[in-house]
Write a structure and sequence with these properties.
This protein is of the alpha/beta class and about 500 residues long. Among the domains are: about 30 residues, no CATH class; about 170 residues, Aspartate Aminotransferase, domain 1 (Alpha-Beta Complex), CATH 3.90.1150. It is about 35% helix and about 15% strand. The strands form 4 sheets. The protein has an 8-stranded mixed beta sheet with strand order 1-9-8-5-4-2-3-15, with helices on both faces. Helix 7 links the parallel strand 4 and strand 5.
């Protein structure tokens, strides 16, 4: 009896799972792959893909269906991500950098009121140290980034400098990232943006799953009435995921991030539905039509439009209202992402736990290191001193400032800064970690203003960006900071090896 296509597909997928279980053991969550680690021989990555046979089966199954371009899996992923975050819409793109480009381009559309549209020469407030493609779209689309300093203790923008950057009639938006999974001061940023009617773009690429809590009365004054899905209220605070507070946010699904589809990203439309149409146009060649690929005439008047100087009835699928791009990912990637979304809650908890293990293991090295704090935290509290106070573990783990705001970080990395008085530099430490096969990274581009591209840009186009003042915090991060991984593929043995290696290095250097 011959097999049907369904029978063949089922057999292929069964064998796919069997193959993946044998071949990809090292990519399973850390709790499952501990036996494979050999200290000093096995590399400890700073980040990487964490998956099981579920994702491999999904990718193969989607490929067998051979839709390929963004289609049913993509539509499902967009709905599921939007529902998880509690935003109006999510649009898949081919990278986090593309997400930033599309997000910023959305605010340049002529379909916005003139006072809200970002045009060439308008200014956008951002921060000096970080990843370059948070800033690149501002320049690429003709606006002027205005750089503020970073607080080295959090990695985030110094919110107290915002007023000094504002210029009436010129400043149109703020576009910054939540640094290494540490939410920036959303309370201060939202109040500033509301005061001056500015757009807020949250680069949430490193921060999927982080939450920010704000006292209810303060949140209500800013227009927030409900909590994010799945996050219970404690009666005094409104809690939402990062990436759900501003106007638009972005995600990256590159392998080091909180979930992966290989390459990929998303633009989240938080609470203004019309922005979806504009963002989708920039993502999809700049066309005016909003029909998905493979679908026609969802507006019911495909041949009834008259736009620009085109003849009435010109095919709406070939009318272009923007200078756009083609930035969609593939449907098999979305199939992978859907499986990753199901694993996101334990991935988030693993990142928090891994950060805490590293912090506790290095706690007595404060004579040579300064450690990152979550925004609004004033001190880390060792486990032995936390007691049994009510509330979630992150609240008990830190002392907090008087704002009443709290941050619960889904850490992208564990950043530490080598003190200037230490008998070694952060480069010395990074080199030693490399020799011991421990992955580490600097804080992305450091002070971007010191990067060759910005040095040259200042020579070529002196008015292409503006710097409000010196950036000692960004410089400190550039000269002294590095970070280790917190991703969920790390086992306890790997983390303990990292701690032991750093402690031995400090002891050796201190005795020398």
């Amino acid at each position: 009896m011959s097999k049907t296509p369904a029978d063949l597909k089922a057999e292929i997928l069964r064998l796919t799972r069997e193959y993946s279980a044998l071949m990809h053991k090292a990519n399973r969550p850390g709790i499952e792959n501990a036996a494979a680690f050999v200290p000093g021989k096995t590399t400890v990555p700073y980040a990487g893909r964490v998956f099981t046979e579920d994702e491999v089966e999904a990718a193969v199954g989607s490929t067998l269906d051979f839709w390929l371009t963004l289609g049913p899996e993509g539509e499902a992923f967009e709905r599921e991500l939007a529902a998880l975050l509690g935003v109006k819409h999510s649009l898949l793109v081919n990278s986090g950098s593309s997400a930033n480009l599309v997000a910023f381009a959305t605010f340049t559309t002529h379909k916005l009121p003139p006072h809200k549209r970002i045009q060439p020469g308008d200014e956008v407030i951002t921060v000096a140290a970080g990843f370059p493609t948070t800033v690149s779209p501002i320049i690429q689309l003709g606006a002027v980034p205005v750089f503020l300093d970073n607080d080295p203790a959090t990695g985030n923008i110094r919110a107290e400098q915002l007023e000094s950057a504002y210029v009436a009639g010129k400043t149109k938006a703020v576009m910054i990232a939540h640094a290494l999974g540490n939410p920036f001061d959303l309370g201060a940023l939202l109040e500033f943006c509301k005061k001056y009617d500015l757009w807020l773009v949250e680069d949430n690429c490193d921060a999927l799953g982080c939450t920010y809590s704000m006292p209810i009365e303060r949140a209500k004054a800013l227009g927030f009435m409900q909590n994010s899905p799945g996050i219970p209220s404690n009666g005094t605070h409104i809690t939402r995921f990062t990436g759900t507070w501003g106007d638009i946010s972005t995600q990256s699904f590159y392998p080091p991030h909180h979930l992966t589809m290989g390459e990929g990203g998303a633009v989240n439309i938080i609470h203004r539905p019309p922005l979806k149409t504009y963002a989708e146009s920039f993502r999809d060649w700049g066309r005016d039509c909003w029909c998905a690929s493979g679908k026609d005439d969802t507006c019911g008047k495909r041949f009834g439009w008259q736009l620009g100087e085109l003849p009435k009835g010109y095919d709406h699928k070939y009318i272009y209202s923007h200078l756009g791009y083609n930035l969609k990912p593939l449907d098999p990637q979305a199939a992978i992402g859907r499986q990753q979304l199901k694993k996101l809650p334990p991935f988030i908890e693993a990142r928090k736990e891994n950060w805490e293990i590293l912090r506790a293991g290095l706690a007595d090295l404060e004579h040579v290191f300064e450690f990152t704090l979550p925004t609004h935290a004033t001190a880390w509290i060792p486990p032995s001193k936390r007691g049994a106070a009510a509330g979630s573990s992150f609240e008990n783990a830190f002392a907090w400032d008087s704002t009443g705001c709290r941050t619960d970080a889904s850490w992208f990395g564990f950043m530490l800064r080598v003190k200037s008085s230490a008998p070694f530099s952060h480069t010395d430490l990074a080199r030693h970690l490399d020799e011991k096969k421990i992955g580490n990274r600097m804080f992305f581009g450091g002070n971007l203003l010191k990067q060759p591209v910005f040095v040259q840009l200042k020579k070529d186009r002196p008015h292409a960006f503006r710097v409000v003042a010196d950036n000692p915090g960004a410089d400190e991060i550039m000269h002294r900071a590095l970070f280790l991984g917190t991703y969920p593929g790390l086992s306890k043995d790997m983390l303990n090896y990292e701690i032991e290696t750093i402690r031995n290095f400090v002891t050796e250097k201190t005795k020398a």
